[in-house]
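User: Sequence for Alpha/beta hydrolase below. Tokens please.
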Amino acid sequence: MIINQTSIAFHEAGDGLPVVLVHGGVSDLRTWGAQFEPLAEHYRTIAYSRRYHCPNPPISSDTPDPIQTHVDDLAELIETLGASPAHVVGHSWGGLIALLLALQRPQILRSLVLIEPPVVSMHVTVPPTIGQMTRLLIRSPKLAVAIAKLGGGALMPAEKAFRKGDDKSAVEYFGRGVLGKHRFASLSAERYEQVWENRGPERALALYAGFPDLRTADFSQISIPVLLITGSESPSIFLLLIDELSQRLPNARRQVILGASHIVHEDAPQALNDAVLSFLEDVG
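Assistant: Structure tokens for Alpha/beta hydrolase:
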């Protein structure tokens, strides 16, 4: 399918209200393998690979990858497939894309399920200034420390490695930062291959300041139902970010999935599926 002048791969199955699955970074539509069929038993389920992610045409090494392009792609996909208004389930960067769409085009959404969206830039720019971090440290010390840890231990080293052309080290810094070093080390060969095949957009994000500035975003205007999901074994930054986001969304509920890291839907698929299906049934 052609969306905004680029080829976008997607899978679709089932009948009923539409549910669109939006994957995160270093991933593609394969990440939803354990969700697709269970959801399709009850809903018209659509999973797609975002622009530049397998099996779509790859991104070139010198091309920026602004998040707004992905927001526009998601909106166009929903409308092209006649899926408006849609329930949207977004993981990580995909959750951030879905959240931005809710700010910009709420009329094409029915509800959101956001699995650990990295809303760091609600608080500071990425990378942050010393002044921003000082003010955050005064207001929310735990969050400031967690952001500093993510930046110093994952994002900055990954950027440096990408600039040197050392993609392997960059992927490892990033993976350990968002999953934890033990979870990253335990990825299967097949899952690591998916990470490796989709490292190009992650490189663009690291090298071209891909995070949007959300410090003035008014999330209180998002009135649709939102389910915020975190994994109990994720790095603490995701729990802290969800704490903050839940206070800004007027119609949000939260759920922690036990035993799961940042890739909640892969680590604990049955629990995640049960949570999503229960939420969708409740909101209608």
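The chain has a mean pLDDT of 96.
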